[in-house]
Design a protein that fits this description.
This protein is of the alpha/beta class and 351 residues long. Helix content is 59%, strand content 11%. It contains 17 helices and eight strands. Strand 4, helix 5 and strand 5 form a beta-alpha-beta unit. Helix 7 crosses helix 8, helix 7 packs parallel to helix 9 and helix 12 packs antiparallel against helix 17. The chain starts with a strand and ends in a 7-residue tail after the last helix.
Length: 351
């Protein structure tokens, strides 16, 4: 069984009932983790939760099967939660599905993996498994999710404040949920005693976002702005930007470009198209010039390779945290060179 960000909600209940192995992947780590939480909540008898690391399963592939067929410490049911990078759990999953004994539910959240990964291919066609791929949501989707979270927490707020929370969370629903919880405590709000949220409340307790700091670098690299890339990379080093956080900003923009490219029909005027997207709150109006510049560069196979390159770069950063800043700089230089080459020769296909 395969699912995407769009259809997961409709398939979740059936999957929780029928499947035993779940593989959550894609650039949207928050979406994948939220989906795993959703499945765990829908299990008829989740029992004890056993957490395993993908790195440990790579060293000992038999362990997953042993744990999945073992009884809980207290004799009850259990489910297994695996946090993996890429295909770390591949051999363990292969061993698990080779057994005739039905396992307890196994939920794998695989950072840096896609539905084309080796592990996903093992499971995609199995009736007892689900592979769910998550792309980062757009601004409108996260804004809507924030309003739903706020309603559940007893906070009354308009779309403008919900959008501000979504942007400050970097479109990460986990961060947004934490912000909503913090704001509800600050306003002493609950479902039984709802309270109105104001801009002053956000100013007082909401977390600052690094996205504004990231934006100039993201736009310089993806826009092929040769003169700006060097100074922006130097600023990255001097200001101590978080490498993974910065890479997530690139991944969000790449996913946004992919979604926009899929809706941009041949012959359609790009300026009018982006204005309509801004009016629909799928992009921020201030981002229109940069996105137009980037859509002219990143399309088709070139955009697909950009996404795969960012996913591979994410895996490298997580597996070598000490060198993450250097690895990220090298990866961004490669992307910037590709973008610069395209701006010089728009019809030339580059790697």
């Amino acid at each position: 069984m395969k699912a995407s960000s769009k259809d997961f909600a409709g398939l979740a209940a059936r999957a929780a009932r029928d499947a035993r192995i779940f593989f959550f992947c894609g650039p949207d780590e928050a979406g994948a983790a939220d989906a795993a939480d959703r499945i765990a909540a829908l299990l008829a008898d989740p029992g004890e939760r056993v957490e395993l690391a993908g790195a440990d399963l790579r060293k000992d592939p038999v362990r997953l099967g042993d744990e999945a067929r073992s009884n809980s410490l207290f004799g009850g049911s259990r489910h297994i939660w695996v946090r993996a990078q890429g295909d770390e759990a591949h051999d363990a999953v292969q061993t698990l599905i080779g057994s005739e004994v039905e396992p307890c539910p196994v939920l794998i959240v695989a950072t840096g993996a896609t539905d084309k990964s080796r592990t996903a291919k093992l499971l995609a066609d199995r009736p007892d498994a689900m592979v769910a791929m998550f792309w980062p949501p757009d601004l409108a989707a996260v804004t809507s999710a924030v309003r739903a979270m706020a309603n559940g927490a007893g906070l009354k707020l308009g779309s403008d404040l919900a959008e501000r929370i979504a942007r400050s969370a970097g479109l990460d629903t986990r961060v947004a949920r934490s912000e909503v919880t913090k704001l509800a405590l600050y306003r002493d709000a609950s479902a039984e005693s709802p309270q109105a949220l104001t801009a002053a409340d956000l100013d007082a307790v909401a977390a600052a976002t690094e996205d504004d700091d990231f934006a100039a670098l993201v736009d310089a690299v993806l826009g092929g702005r040769r003169q700006a890339i060097g100074p922006e990379l130097r600023r990255m080093r001097e200001s101590g930007m978080n490498p993974v956080g910065l890479l997530l900003a690139f991944e969000r923009r790449a996913a946004q470009l992919a979604a926009l490219a899929s809706r941009l029909m041949p012959g359609m005027d790009l300026g009018n198209f982006l204005r309509s997207e801004a009016a629909a709150r799928r992009i921020f109006w201030k981002d229109q010039p940069a996105i137009a510049e980037q859509l002219r560069i990143w399309r088709g196979n070139r955009l697909e390779r950009l996404v795969l390159h960012l996913i591979a770069l994410h895996q490298k950063l997580l597996s070598s945290s000490q060198d993450s800043e250097l690895l990220l700089a090298e990866g961004l230089v490669h992307i910037g060179r590709t973008a610069c080459a395209v701006t010089k020769h728009p019809t030339k296909e580059t790697a």
